[in-house]
Structures are given as structure tokens and as C-alpha cells.
Amino acid sequence: MYICSIMLEAPNILDLAQKHPVMLNDLQVVHERERQTPGAVQYAFKRYSRVPQWSTEDMGMMVYHYKKNDPAACYLELRFCVTGNAYCKGKDAEKECVNCKNGLVKACTAKEETVDVMNFTFLPEHLQQFVKTPRAGDFTNDVLCFKHPSSFSKALPLCGRVRVILESLLDNTYTDSFENIYINAQTQMLLLYSLECMLGNKEEENFSCKFLANDSDKEKILKAREILLEHIGEPITIKDLSRKVAINECYLKKGFKEVFGTTIFDFYQSQRMEHAKYLLYEKELSVTEVSLMLGYSSISHFSTAFKKHTGLKPCELLLR
Question: Model pTM?
């Protein structure tokens, strides 16, 4: 049994990536993490100590699962195998090196070279927010809406932006709730960038909003996203957000939609509800507690927003 069997059943992309196959039993897991919260974007990371004689190329794959007569069984997967990263061996013993604690992962003094296998699962409810105005023959929209009529697996080129996201997911220094918020947001970007890379779009970003050609203005849009994540439990108005990043409201709204593929409101609501699932299911907090933590004025307002986003009442998630 080879390591490729962890990622795929058929076709096995790591069969193509491996130059010298290594038995799974020869590989040591140095770290693993997963989230299987019902209704949430699910992920699993498995980091293996790199075997010196094993040579591989970084690979990715998009797997589209389609069942015509069972829409609830449809989902989209992103799967990756990446090398060249390192894991701080002191983390598990809570003896993480000073460099890692300061976010200087590349300078880690207790590093273990790794082969990292990462899997992300997106349900139809996660993909609807990225659907643009329907157009005949639009492959991306057909996939996001699950209108493409058959399952498929496609090799996914790892463009620069996808690599940056993968590295940030492996090496971020956040913990607990802050880590969950961060991973939710980065996973969303990973999906968008992966779709662009798969379709062969140029890696250089060509925005229809001319002001985004200015690096300074683009940085303001990126900063706005960071501020939204920092205020996940303290709703902020677009007016206040525009003031914080020093850009007018119109440019902020247009630029955000152009860069991230979704509106400010939809992005913020999506991140709040994804975090709510985590707090309810993983942290086992009450609906009242979660409602207060996310800045809702009443439990009923929170419950309404949660059901609109997930199709479930908060209490129904706890019964799964």
C-alpha cells in the first residue's frame, strides 16, 4: 500500500508524483489535524516525515462527485501533496522553538522535513456563494452548481497563490478559535484560486477595477478582509471598514468583490456561520453563548441567520 492510497483511489495522482515509491509503513506521521463538523467545510492534514530516498513532485487534484438522483450526495474535493515544508518537532511536546513561536518557520531549529497530504471537502451549500450570473457553457459555474453531468478527477496545477495558501494552512501560528477562523477564510481562497489555476487563467491578476492595478489599493482590500476576520464577533459597518483601510465605500465594495469573488456581507456572514458550527459542535457551547460571541442582538436573529446559511437550526446541528 503506497502513500498515494491516502489521497486518491482512482486515479492516484501520487502514483504519478512518485519517482521512487515508498511503502506506507515506512512513513512516520509527525502531525495530523482534521475537522469533520457536520455541514462545515471538512479538511484533513497529514504530515509525514520525509524518507530521504523518496522523490516526488508537488501535485494537486480536484475531484468532482456527482450523483444525478441524489443531490445531497454531491460534493467537491481538493487534494494536495506538497513537499519542501518542515514541522517543528517541539510542537507536540509544547516545546516549540523560538523562531516558530515568532512566525519564522523557515528558520526553525527543530525542524523535520515533511511530505504533506491535505484534503478539503466542499458541499453544495458552500459553493453557491461563488456562483456568478449563469452563462451557457460556463464550466466553473456548472461545477459550483453541480450541473456538470458526470463525476471527474482533474490534475490541478499548483500556481503560486495556491502554494502560498497551502503553506499558510500548514504553518500558521494561530490556535483554538483564531485558528478555526483563519483556516475557514484561507480554505475559501484556496477554492477560488484552485478553480482559476485549473482553468488555466494567467497567474498574473488582471482586474476589471482599474484602481486594483495599484498595489497600495489592493493592499487596502486585503487589509479589509483581515479586519473582518478580526471582528468576527463584533460586526463592523462598511463605512467604518472603509475608514479603517482609507478607501471610499464604493471602491471597497467593488474591489472586495473583484478580489475575493464575493460581497463583503456574504463573506462576513459565511465566516461567522462557519465559525458558529465550530463553536456549537466542537466546543459544545450553547446557542445562547454562540449568539453572544458572534455579536447577535438576540438568539432568534442568530438562529434565523444560521438556518439561512446552513439549512438547519442551531439545535439541529447538535443532534447530528
Answer: 0.77
